[in-house]
């Protein structure tokens, strides 16, 4: 066996099989709904649903294959996701010509550096962006000399680096965590992604089925109390049932899953507020039916760093 | 006509780096001898416009580019071998300007023959991206020489942020290019009206 490729982990395979089964069921349900419902008003929603399911197949295939390749695969995948997310974000953010060099550094120095440090398993990755990146950005912009909306421009670029690179990089950073009796293990990343994304999906499903009362109408008509409660509870239940993927006990798995679900909701809400502020519906159009990369990753942005620190604090060596 | 693998690779790379999203307002483009003309904000403009064209049209389309920038070293190799560019001198401010501009148009028309389409930026120089400058008369004189050309306007957005004037390193933001409905040339239309109409066709493609 080649170095880097590890023997297939039974539990990992079960989880992947479960995802595969879910995709098959979702695909069948989507097609049945398309055939069964002649209601014109619902047609657009169902077409969008089927497009979303199609995209899920692609995303699961990409994520699953990088998990199997090993830590390098996940680092490359998330590095690419960060790069594309940053590109979507900074395209929508108004910048000025004087910001050009700062933007270049953001894309081509700080983004690769963050993932390179992770590849070295150096825990200093915690501080590189929040300390050096955040000080570097305004310094470079001050040198460029353009003071119009200076603070605003600097803060917007810093926030882009924060969400698209720093926060997202916490997901593959899970692979560097050495947990006594469990080891650095891809199952931890899989657990986070499953609970976080299934929470998104279930909030959407419960919202579509039962949604009546909007939580924050000024941000999103689609985020309802019914969707939030139904999604959070069922995602917590699924996360708890997946405790065997993790070093957690059953109650701990429940508490951590609930935390992931709540943070996922917060991430989605914040990223939607930014979209309303910028006057756009989606961050991009890379993922059919979903929008851009950032539209899919919004919940992970908040959940990944907190999940990492919980695991490190309570289970780390 | 050059259809090279290298051209396909360069076009793909240009599309990835610029993240360009091309849209055709008036349906798919036709394989007819055309002039594609657009607003000009970046050295990458013609590369991205060229890369956004379907492969068969791209192979028959030659950008017009400034000789002083592109006629050097690696840039020249790219311009000549990959883009098949027509390199022309920029018009100066001296007395010989008028006659030199005429001979440039003659040369461009000759290089087009009956086969090649052209990419030009009628503003003549790169702007900041905020407004579109008045068009220079080259487009008009070219149409007088070759009145049958299909005139395809395009509007390029965000490339001025990808590679602004005076910068060397590109930043990979997503840019957008919108092609409009083809227009045609009417020899009876006065020069300034024609140029204003063409400029309006480009500006009208700007979103929002």
Would you write up a description of this structure?
- The complex is a heterodimer of chains A (317) and B (208).
- Chain A is mainly alpha-helical.
- Chain A folds into three domains: 10-69; 70-176; 178-317, no CATH class.
- Chain A contains ten helices and no strands.
- With 208 residues, chain B is of the alpha/beta class.
- Chain B has a single domain, classed as Glycerol-3-phosphate (1)-acyltransferase (3-Layer(aba) Sandwich), CATH 3.40.1130.
- In chain B, strands 1-7-6-2-5-3-4 form a seven-stranded mixed sheet, sandwiched between helices.
- Chain B is globular.
- The mean pLDDT of chain B is 85.
- The A-B interface holds A 83, 87-88, 90-91, 95, 97, 100-101, 103-104, 107, 284-285 and B 19, 21, 128, 158, 161, 164, 167, 169, 171-174.
List the helices and strands and how they pair.
The complex is a heterodimer of chains A (317) and B (208).
Chain A lengths: L9 H27 L3 H30 L1 H22 L7 H20 L5 H20 L5 H24 L12 H25 L14 H17 L8 H29 L14 H23 L2
Chain B lengths: L4 H14 L2 E4 L9 E5 L6 H8 L2 H4 L2 E6 H4 L2 H10 L3 E3 L8 H16 L4 E4 L17 H8 L4 E8 L1 H4 L13 E4 L11 H13 L5
Parallel strand pairs in B: 1-7, 2-5, 2-6, 3-4, 3-5
Antiparallel strand pairs in B: 6-7
The major sheet of chain A is characterized as: none
Mean pLDDT of chain A: 91
Helix content, binned percent of chain B: 25-40%
As a percent range, the share of strand residues of chain B is 15-25%
Range of strand content of chain A: under 5%
Number of extended strands of chain A: 0
Overall pLDDT level of chain B: 85
Structural class of chain A: mainly alpha
CATH superfamily of chain B: Glycerol-3-phosphate (1)-acyltransferase
CATH architecture of chain B: 3-Layer(aba) Sandwich
For the largest interface in this structure, which chains are involved and how many residues does each contribute? A-B, 14 and 12 residues
- Order of helix and strand elements from N to C terminus of chain A: HHHHHHHHHH
Q: Any idea how many domains of chain A?
A: 3
- In CATH, the topology of chain B is named Glycerol-3-phosphate (1)-acyltransferase
